[in-house]
Amino acid sequence: MSIKLTKTVNFGSGKGSLSTVGYRLLNSVGTLSGSRTTSGVGEVLAGSGIYSGSVYLTEAFSGSILWDTGEATPAYASEDYNGLDETIDFTRHITAGRWQIDKDLFEMIFYREDNETEIARYSLKDRSGDPSFEEVFDRVKK
Questions:
Q1: Residue range 51-73, pLDDT digits in tens
Q2: What is the CATH number of domain 2-82?
Q3: Residue ranges covered by each domain of the chain
Q4: Cα 140 → chain centroid
Q5: In 10 A of CB 15, how many CB atoms?
Q6: Which of 18, 32, 35, 129 gets the most CB atoms within 10 Å of its CB?
Q7: 3-state SS record for 28-58
């Protein structure tokens, strides 16, 4: 079974309005997994150089999404993808495990389901962007 993810890449406005942007998949040992794809890839906002596409992956895929501009001398960007199992595992732990606010550091700490192993830490900020644990308006992953 395959999954479809919407992924984006930002090549910058200097690479805006290209019709040749595409991607290919490389597995975890760096071997190409399928061929280069431009189908379904488009610019998010005209002239922005930010492109988006529907990337189809098998549930077991682990590796990288390698984007390129498709020009004679292409620019490249890559994003690691560690598989659906890792995403599901992280989501399970962050929702089932302990959450704790450190009032001295203005941080929220998330733990695995064992309630002891830290998996993520976020800075907490109020509406003005100042550190806060009482009127949290924004959280930023550390």
A1: 999 998 887 788 899 999 999 99
A2: 2.60.40
A3: 2-82, 86-141
A4: 15
A5: 20
A6: 18
A7: CCCCECCCCECCCCEECCCCCCEEEEEEEEE
